[in-house]
Task: structure prediction
Amino acid sequence: MKADNKSKIDFVVLWVDDSDPVWREKKIKYVGEKNVKGNEDARYRDWDTLKYWFRGVEKFAPWVNNVYFVTDNQKPDWLNINHPKLKWVKHTDFIPEQYLPTFNSNAIELNVHRIDGLSEHFVYFNDDCFLIDKTEPEDFFIDGLPCEWPSIGPLIPIGFFAYTQMNNYQVENRHFSMRDSIKNNYTKWFRNRSLKDLAKLLIYGSKNEIIGVDSWHIQISFLKSTFNTVWAKEYETLDSTCKNKQRTKEDINCWCIKDWQILSGNFHPQKPLGQLFHTVSLNNSNEAVEYLKKQKGKVVCLNDTENENNFEEHKRMIIEQFEKLFPEKSGFEL
Result:
C-alpha cells in the first residue's frame, strides 16, 4: 500500500530549558521547590542534544512539511527561527489560559492539536527521541492512517507511570471492547505476528476488558481529529489532567489518544521504527551508543531517569556518537 501523498505530515517536538532562571522562578512559584514523584529534576534536565534532533530531521526526513517546536517561551541561542519549515510555538499560543502556566508534560501533550496550522497528520516527538536513519512518509502514515504495531497484555504495576497507563485504560474501557476492536480489525491485529504475540492476542483479546496496550515509547503518529474526538467524549477527564500543574497519579497522557486510534481501527500495522534505551547505567549507555553507531533502527529514544548514576559521563558518550553521525550543522542552526 502507498502513503496518502495528499496529506502533509508535520513534526511536533517539546523542549524545556531547565536552567532558565525565569522558568525556574515561575516553577517554584506555582509548584514549590520540592520535587514530587514523577517530576524529578531528571524529567526536565537538558542533555544538550536538541541540535542533533534537528540535524536528524533535516538529514533523514527532508520531506516533512513543518516542524513545530513547542516551548514555554524558550529557545536555544543557536536556533534559526527563520528556517522556512520551523514554527516556534509558545505554550500561550495554544494551551487554554485556565491551564497556564503548566509544568505538566501530560497537559501540554493533550493540547497540541490546538496548535494553529498543524496538519491533520502529525508525528509527535519528545526531545529525547531522534531520527538516526533515512525515513519516508510511509514510515509514519499509510493510506492516511497512523502506523502502529499494537500488542496487548496485562499492565505490570511497577513505577509511577503505571498509574498513568491504568488511568488511560479506565478511559478506554468506557468506550471500547478489546474483543470487538480486534474482531472488527483482525487482519490488522494478526498480520505477520510472532507466536508470542498470537498467543497474547488469543488469550487477552477474547476479553471485553482492556488490560493493557503496549506503548513503544518512541515517536507517535497522530490524527489531529482523534484529539478532538477524545476531548468531546472525555472532556472532564482531560480537563482534570490539564489543571494539574505537575504530573500526578491521577493524570492520563497522550498514549490514551494513541490507544484510541488503535482501538478504533484507525491504524496501519507496521513494526516499530526503533528502540527505547534508559540511560540509567554505563551498560545501557554503551548499548545506546552501539545502536547509534550501527544505526540499527530509524529512531532511537534515550530516556533519562531519576536513577541515572553518572549523568555527565553518559551525556559525553551520547554526544560524542551524535557528533560522528551528524558532524555538520543543519539549516535549523545559526
